[in-house]
Amino acid sequence: MNKIKVVLADDHPIVLAGVKETIESDGMYEVMSVAKTSGELMDAIKEHSPDIVITDFYMPGDEHYGDGMRLVSYLVRNFPQVRFLVLTMLNNRSILGSLYDCGVSGVLQKSINLDEINVALRTISKGGIYKGNFTLEPDSVMASTSSVSERIASISIKEAEVLRLFLAGERLKDIATSLQRSAKTVSTQKTSVMRKLCVHSDQELFAFCQEHQVV
Length: 215
What we know:
By secondary structure, the protein is α/β, with parallel strands linked by helices. Helices cover 52% and strands 13% of the residues.
C-alpha cells in the first residue's frame, strides 16, 4: 500500500523533529520534506505533491507569501487537492474559526500530546475534519453577542486611524507624532480596538485584519 505523503513546515527545529518522528512512527505516512519558511513550503508542495501538509501558523514569511491567515488562505486556494493541518499556539475563538472557515482540515495546538497528531492525521486522511479538544480563551461579551461586522463597525474613526497606521508597520510613538496625539492616547486606542475585535495579541490583530480585510 502506498504511503500517504506529508510535508512539514515549522521554523522551530525541535518542533519539526518531534512531529516528524511521531508521524513516521505510524507506517501509513511518509514525510517527504520539511520547510522552515513559507517560501520553502511552497517549493516542497510543488516538488512533492503531498497529500497532507502540516504547517505552523506563524513562521518566517516573505513579501510574496507572508504567514498567518494570509499564508493559510493562499495555500488552501492554490492547492485544493491538499489537506492542511495547522499547528498553532493560539486558542482564540475568532482566529480558530477563521482557519476552519477558509478550508483547513484541522487545527492542532502545540501544547497537545504529540500522539494527537496521528489522531488528527487519521481523521483527515479519511476525508474528515479534525476539531480536537481546544481549551479556548473566553472571548469577551462582545464576541459572544456580536458578529464580525458589528465588532468592526464598533471601531471609532480615531481608533481606525491608529489601526490603519499600525497595520502599515508604524510604531505607536510614530503614530502618536503623525496624528498629533499623546503616546498614551494612541496606546489606549489600540488596546480598545483589540478589545472590540476580541483579539489578544498583535499577531492575532494582524491575522484578524488580514482575514476580514479591515482598514
